[in-house]
Amino acid sequence: MKRQFAILLALLCASAAPAEIWHIDSEHGDDAYTGLAPDQAWRSFAQLLRADIKPGDTVLLMAGSAWREPLLLTHSGTAEAPITITRGGEGPRPRIEVGGVAENAVEIRNADNIAVSGLELTNTGPGTGLRRGVFINAIDFGVATNIALRDLYIHDIKGTNERKDNGGIVFSALGPAVPTRFEGITIERNLLWKVDRSGIAGISDQVSVARWFPSRFVVIRDNVLEDIGGDGIVARGADGTLIEHNIVRHAASRAPGYNVAIWQWSTDNTLIQLNEAAFTHGIYDGMGFDSDFNSRNTTLLSNFSHDNEGGFLLICTPVVRDPVENIGNSGTLVRQNVSYNDRERIIQLGGASDALIEKNVIHAGPGEVQMVVATWWDGWSERITLRDNLLGTRGTAHYGYETGRSGGHYVASPGFPPPLSVAFDGNVYAGEHLDRPADATGREKSAREPRPEQWAVPVLDPARPDDLPGFLARHRAWMLAMLRRELGERPALEQPRLMMPVDYRRR
To answer: How far apart are CA 132 and CA 122, in angstroms?
Structure first.
């Protein structure tokens, strides 16, 4: 009995041990010190791997410091006591620059209940290679919980544009032996600038119908991404992801192939709302937004798409598919979004089914656009409804289905013949519309000439990361005011939901 009591007392004492504050200072630290006080700071990150970092501990990287070594985090906190890595003291952000030294400036490897904030990260180096700002790397880990990245300034990540699993922030859940996913990951209020290839990207190998183990409670919110080589933000292998009030400008600046500013792949119940996607380059997709492959119930709500070379919206998946691998794309809802000066293809339908596009406002520019074009991806889209939209153009708008292709441009013929089933109901057609589809309750009106000052969206100098909080507040207020003006009502934002058990793909 005495021995059991002693063991219990020891456990209680250990659990009540006070949290430690560790210090790392590249200018004044010494690895021979304890690390437990500002005047006992370590110099290098290597000491963290040897230290007894416990749940609830804080690691302070001292302001003004700079390191040419990666920060590798392998200790886990708990839900009640996460481990925190942040800036200590006053002055410039602590800077980690690992070009030519390491693939990742910061890596969280098979660890969870961690929060990282307040840092500046770069990763350039000679030539191009696999490079990242932050890599959240879970392999055969099971369920990794409660990871947060906030207030990071990530720039000049010179990764390879041949692979999508590198760039600014990559969170990867791979489970070749043990099914692995994230349960609670938050990426918010970060500034990413001049990043190749992906801005913020999820990776998973458990995305098929037969092998479905989605990450949950993923939140990507209030981030600014400027000058991204390929895709801006893409969630993969997740259920109930929230992508809210992010600003992605000049995506697809350098990467070949198909890129979109904000999209998802192999997800359920993704909610994409109040985002701005602008100046996406190229017409191999080149859209502002996309609801993509092997996904159900994606919602795009109250977003702003403008000046994207490829257009506003893509909804796609192959129609002929292995049902064990791909469930298709169904249930997409596109509601109360605004598109201004988007080009090439405003709305592209590529094999998806059962989508509703309603109450959106389109202001296409003075050139020619394909307002709605159905394209072939091993079959045609079915049961698509466009209802109560304002489809406006200051140039000429076309409608039809793909009959040929020249590079990224689709040659289209008028109409949507069977087996295509695209219905139009109650839309307003402003400006010149050729081959306008049948719409019994639709009506025509003159196109209005927008006043340029109405579209003067707030801007941020990405070289000034400390201006980010004020910019985000101004931008959100501008977005809400613009949406209210264009939609005639204040947008009602939603909360993400998860798939109900009866609808799980893994049984």
So the answer is: 8
Both tokens of residue 20?
């430690």
pTM for the whole structure: 0.95
Both structure tokens of 126: 């000679």
pLDDT in tens, 443-497: 999 887 778 889 999 999 999 999 999 999 999 999 999 999 999 999 999 999 8
Dihedral sign computed on CA atoms, order 359, 365, 371, 377: negative
Checking 64-68 for CB contacts under 8 A at 24+ apart, the result is 64/27, 64/89, 64/91, 64/92, 64/94, 65/24, 65/25, 65/26, 65/27, 65/94, 65/95, 66/26, 66/94, 66/95, 66/96, 66/97, 67/26, 67/94, 67/95, 67/96, 67/97, 68/97, 68/98, 68/101
User: Residue 124's CB: how many other CB atoms inside 10 A?
Assistant: 16
User: How far apart are the C-alpha atoms of 300 and 281, rounded to whole Å?
Assistant: 21
The lowest-confidence range among 15-29, 142-156, 213-227 is: 15-29
Distance CA 182, CA 204 (A): 10
Q: Phi-psi bin for 77: left (phi > 0), alpha (psi -120 to 50), beta? A: beta
Name the phi and psi angles at 440, rounded to 5: -60, -35
Q: What is the pLDDT of residue 2?
A: 47
Strands 104-109 and 71-73: parallel
Alpha-carbon span 426 to 424, nearest angstrom:
7
Which residues, including other chains, have CB under 8 Å from residue 109's CB and lie 6 or more apart?
Answer: 72, 73, 74, 137
Helices (H) and strands (E) in the chain, counts: 3, 42
Q: Give the integer Cα–Cα distance in Å for 296 and 314.
A: 15
* Cβ atoms within 10 Å of 274's Cβ, excluding its own: 21
| Euclidean distance between CA atoms 336 and 320, whole angstroms | 31
Strand partners, 239: 216, 268
Q: Check: CB of residue 113 under 8 Å from CB of residue 55.
A: yes
- List Cβ neighbours of 282 (8 Å cut-off, separation of 6 or more): 252, 259, 309, 310, 408
CA dihedral 22, 25, 31, 32 (to 10 degrees): -80
Give the whole-angstrom CA distance, residue 502 versus residue 500: 6
